[in-house]
Specification:
The chain is 30% helix and 33% strand. It has helices at 7-21, 28-38, 42-60, 77-98, 100-105, 232-235, 250-257, 285-295; strands spanning 109-110, 117-120, 126-129, 134-139, 144-156, 165-169, 172-176, 180-186, 189-196, 199-203, 206-210, 214-219, 228-229, 242-249, 264-268, 275-281, 298-303, 306-311. β2 (117-120) and β3 form a beta hairpin. α1 (7-21) packs across α3 (42-60) and α1 (7-21) runs parallel beside α4 (77-98). The longest helix has 22 residues, at 77-98. The protein is elongated and about 75 Å long.
């Protein structure tokens, strides 16, 4: 006799089924299967009702502030977090659908999700654009300026002392003469790593000099962080079609992976600080996600426009 699923398991199943039904690829048979699933028991029906109600609510109103509602009973705490994650799914899809394309349309050069491109500029400098990245290019007699609108780019700069090479990212900039460096803009955080030569990073009214194998990060209106070590071989491995992790936390792994996946990636709750090490092929991300789902305490639901990562407590002790 099969054991009855827990409410957490039913919540996960309801979330997975409902997202699939709203993916645009669901058939009439899929809807019928969902109705049959929800009729299996009162618990199945309750899980289906909650996810359906929240989905429709989010379609007409702002996501509810679940933490401000009446404190749930101990057995319901995890369920509230899962519905909060569903709200994050809808919000993330709205951001991707409404704001992403508009920014790319203003760019001189842009890459699609999964695409990598090499640009050779007028002065012989080269730019490697990572997946889902966009830049504007503005060359004048006094200055060579690249604005990173989105994503990540690796720069190999031709020397020209009369015309500094400047990369603008966020509200800061990176200035170089002849060097090789990487600039990664992720949400409101910019990370700069130097493979060769010297650059100057300016942000929040402060400046930091970076030399080979050094990196800093900065956020809007803030001074650059303290200088840290940078490994060019792994930091720019994406240029070679690889992702390299060396004891990287699980949350950071999914943060890095997000830009290579179509649509949005949403993580449900706080993931454990499990270290992840390995070399993965960017041209075979399904294999990477399969490895993570088998070796880490996560369940990964993939759709054409959405990837949901759920903390899987059952596999926590096995990982």
């Amino acid at each position: 006799m099969n054991p009855q699923p827990t409410r957490t398991e039913l919540d996960e199943q309801a979330l997975e089924r409902w997202v699939q039904l709203n993916s645009g690829n669901a058939s009439q048979a899929d809807w019928q299967a969902f109705q049959q699933w929800r009729q299996r028991s009162a618990a199945h029906a309750a899980a289906a009702d909650e996810v359906e109600q929240l989905w429709h609510t989010l379609g007409h109103t702002q996501p509810p502030n679940l933490s401000a509602q009446v404190a749930p009973a101990p057995g319901r705490t995890r369920r509230v977090r899962r519905w909060a994650a569903l709200a994050a799914c809808v919000a993330a899809l709205a951001v991707v659908g409404l704001h992403g394309p508009a920014r790319v349309l203003t760019a001189d050069q842009a890459t699609a999700t999964g695409e990598r491109r090499t640009l050779t500029l007028d002065d012989g400098s080269q730019v490697w654009l990572n997946s889902a990245s966009a830049v504007n290019i503005d060359y004048s007699a006094q200055r060579r300026e690249i604005t990173l609108l989105k994503g990540e780019a690796l720069f190999q700069v031709s020397k020209d002392a009369a015309r500094p090479f400047v990369v603008v990212a966020g509200d800061g900039e990176v200035r170089a003469v002849g060097t090789r460096f990487d600039v990664d803009l992720h949400r409101d955080r910019v990370q700069v790593g130097v493979a060769e030569g010297v650059v100057q990073v300016s942000s929040g009214g402060s400046r930091v000099r970076l030399e080979q194998s050094q990196q800093v990060s900065y956020q809007q209106g803030r001074a650059p962080s303290s200088v840290d070590l940078y490994d060019p071989s792994s930091g720019a491995a994406w240029q070679r079609g690889k992702l390299i992790f060396n004891r990287t936390t699980l949350a950071e792994v999914f943060e890095v992976t997000e830009r290579y996946l179509p649509g949005a990636l949403v993580v449900s709750g706080r993931l454990p600080n499990n270290p992840v090490s390995g070399v993965f092929d960017l041209d075979d991300l399904p294999a990477m996600l399969d490895v993570l789902s088998r070796t880490q305490p996560v369940k990964i639901v993939r759709l054409p426009w959405l990837t949901v990562v759920l903390f899987d407590e059952k596999n926590k002790s096995e990982s």
